[in-house]
Amino acid sequence: MEDTRIRNLNSFFRQVFGRKIYKVGLWGGFSCPNRDGTLSSNGCTFCNPLSSHPKSFVEGKSITQQLTDGCRYITWRFSVNSFISYFQDYTTTYGDLLELDALYSEALSYPGVVGLSLCTRPDCLPESVLDYLEDLSRRTFLWLEVGVQTSDDGILRDMNRCHTSLDTVNSFRALHERNIFSAAHMIIGYPGSTRETVLADAAFIRNTGTDGVKLQNLHIVRNTTIESRFSADEFELISMDEYINMVILFLEHTEPDVVILRLTGEAPDKLTVAPQWSLHKMTILNEIHGEMKERDTWQGKALGFSKSTIREPLANIRTHWRTD
Ligand code: SF4
Description:
With 324 residues, the chain is an alpha/beta fold.
């Protein structure tokens, strides 16, 4: 039997859809209030939007063309025929509702697409968008990924996020009141964060009641504010070992019914300044899994959950759509 120590995305998709599902990253030409001057023109200190473009990004391709290329590749490479359209760049609930609807609808109408995943900020879910998303979530599998990054308001200010932890709390409450499936993006290793920050973030995330979590290390990407500060020796990055320890600490304090979407982040090689270890995704994943086995630990262990809980099907999946 497989040694399961975290609830991963594959097992979740198998429970929900009964088969393998792959996400197809799409570029929708979105903007962001932290870049267009509404909140700020500088963006978050760590953000270079080019680093989150889909791998096969070519400007000007329609959503349908991107899906044709992406789905064809996934089917050829992995023999998978079911997909989730994934808008991952900028703030993908920010914009004119009619235009958003047109993009989402095109992304959902492609053959084999069974759902939609959107990335957004906690402060970019106004009532009109939430009402629209609530209706959409009744018709398809919808997953809203919210950029939380940390619960520490001082660090949020330092990141120039231009939102607070209270905005985050309110965004998850609003999503869950509408039965919309959610996930939290978290950054580990930002300057000023410590082991206590990780513990506080894990507790904060538990209180949001999120359905999923994405973890990533801080990586320094070219043409960002944090790159200038890093080059000026204002701080040091954590080592890979420290990152692994912090990830495990976070997982141990995360309930076993939370889906772990990602354990590490990466930017394209040519945009990555540091740390170089962040480019070796498989090594990091192997080290995390190896270390968890060595310590005989698992997701939720520090909260008193047994390892077998991770294998149990989720009792209350926060969706009410049906694909069949
Ligand atoms: S990280 Fe997201 S919220 Fe921050 S500037 Fe980039 S696109 Fe905007």
